[in-house]
């Protein structure tokens, strides 16, 4: 049987069906229905009281976030992320300015940000890579000194805490992806997380065509989500602690099974970090070695993913400045199968195959 790199969790059908019965009774399918409102409230409680706007996906969340903060000109960003981080900037007619990453968690290197700031810089859009936090305190101080707005792409960061707070509570806005491949999913979906009520009202208008009923306030798009997606989220949200616990055990099993091989894993020395174990990336010694493992596992019906590749400063439609660390890591990284339903015996088999392929 094929082992995929991710696998969506599906709750008991009866539990989801109970929400569907309510949708059928009400006939209210979308447009800020009661389940969407309930999910936003429960997400807010889960995220230390931050305000949450549920969106159609994580990409539209990024686009609305940029618009809601009135960003223009240049936005400093990371080259090591999913392509949506860069394309959202371009889509909003801004210019991404790439700053290279640090070499242990692969987030944007805060020490290199100030050198990239120009009179045209209006914001910083950084990614918490694989759920590991950016240097949020340093970035906050840089933004304060230069009067810049901060957006965090937290697509991988749901369930992470640092310095005693939800990681998604940092910055002017954080965005999430609730895609089916994520730790917490609503099949398709995303969210914008913030701590400012007026900004939350603005985001709510922007994602809903800019009007409430017959009152029109501003421009907007259709960034809403449905009752069906909210129902999936309401089923999955209470299970997040058990998902993280299962992933923690799988991560330990992988590291044990791969011990003694010259491989690099992301690592944090921050003792305040409560990690969510979003993915299991491995950095090989060379691209040739990475392909040897990728192809060898594929021949055994085990799927992996080059996540992230390419380094975004090398996209064919927007070439940025050289970022040697990001370019190097993107050539050598591979995400192994990782989801809470993955059997430990499959982890042992994958590790054994990697050992044989690298022997």
From TrEMBL:
The active site is at 182 (proton acceptor). InterPro entries: DegT/StrS_aminotransferase, PyrdxlP-dep_Trfase, PyrdxlP-dep_Trfase_major. One of its GO terms (molecular function) is pyridoxal phosphate binding. Pfam families: DegT_DnrJ_EryC1. The modification N6-(pyridoxal phosphate)lysine is found at residue 182. One of its GO terms (biological process) is polysaccharide biosynthetic process. Belongs to the DegT/DnrJ/EryC1 family. PANTHER family: PROTEIN RV3402C (PTHR30244:SF9), TRANSAMINASE (PTHR30244). This is dTDP-4-amino-4,6-dideoxygalactose transaminase. It comes from Hymenobacter psychrophilus.
